[in-house]
Amino acid sequence: MTRWMITLVALLVLPCAASAGMDQVGTTAANFLSLGSGARTLGMSGATLGLGDDVGSASWNAAALGWVGEPQAALSHAGLANGTLQEWGSYGRRIGLLGTRWAVSGLYQGEGSIAGRDDSGASTGDLHVASLAAGATVAQALGERITIGVGSKYVREQLGPASGAGFTFDVGLMVRQGKLGLGVAAQNLLGQMKYGSEVYEFPTNYGAGLAYTDAAHGLKVALDVNRPNAYHPDVRAGVEWTYRGMAAFRTGYRKELGSANDPLSGASVGLGAGRGNLWMDYGYLLSSVSGSGEHRLGLRLALGGHGLDRDAAAAAPRTHGDDFASARDNSLIGPPVPKPTKH
Questions:
Q1: CATH of the domain at 206
Q2: pLDDT of 64-83, one tens digit each?
């Protein structure tokens, strides 16, 4: 199983390194969808395709929703470059006693106003620039080790007097074997953005990731490769270490392939703190070119009322090995903590 997982990722990585997709730059709309959301994930530079297990991770890989037990809510706020703000939220839960989960999410990005001027320099009023996406995701557990997910979202952009709208889709697959995890996902797949008579594609991204989880020591490691249809492919690596289930320390690095000085390349750091039902996260992304950074704040909340919903955990996909069993016996909001050793 391990060899099969590594081989599959390698088959996806090699074509990514060979082609950049830069000939499509400027041909897509709704590019705000490519930034990503969630302080926890971005504190690890966006490396999560084979690792994610909460409603926040479902925005990166729809199959991650399949590992959610009790109802969860997540919120994220980011201050981006040039005064741009991004607000994101999601809520998801299991359907009855089935292995099916659903989630709804919303993403808003406001870029403020731009002063409009005519040819003579006279003011024509402010031009407002804003974007939003609202969607729903469904995930299904296939046995004890595999989850699949699919999502759809409605996207709208307002660019001064012009506006565009359209629908697009996300799909994903995750496999877990012992301490290892594999994920493959496609984001913003198919669909079109229409601005009147003009039609544009969405910024589609194909990705694959490997993850290693050592719950006994609170350690998680993830490695992802992504191939956008209108930008350089990239490689992302991230690490999360949890101390006694109350604090998390994260770091990561993103490298844009085929570009020596790309502003998206750079390191990230993150922190998390919480216990039981409530978990707060912070992430900071640093560009390797400009030296400027982006701050991300996040909140995750379990809504079962008693920490982990044990019935929901029992219905969740199970994996062999004490580490993932340990993770199911603790809160799904905070990173998993192993059971104390009995003497």
A1: 2.40.160.60
A2: 999 988 899 999 998 876 67
Distance CA 219, CA 222 (A): 10
The CA distance from 8 to 81, in Å, is 36
Q: Residue 235: how many CA atoms within 13 Å on its side-chain side?
A: 15
Q: For 117-134, what is each residue's pLDDT tens digit?
A: 555 555 555 677 889 999
Taking the whole predicted model, whether its pTM rises above 0.70 is answered as yes
Residue 59: inside a domain, yes or no? yes
Q: Which of 244, 293, 252, 253 is nearest to 270 (CA)?
A: 252
Does residue 264 belong to any structural domain of this protein?
A: yes
CA dist 161 to 70, 115, 127, 132, 167, Å?
Answer: 44, 13, 7, 16, 21
Residue type, 226: N
The reply to whether 172 falls in a domain is yes
Using CA atoms, how far apart are residues 233 and 60, in angstroms rounded to an integer? Answer: 16
Tell me which residue range forms the domain holding 18. Answer: 2-328
- Structural domains in the chain (count): 1
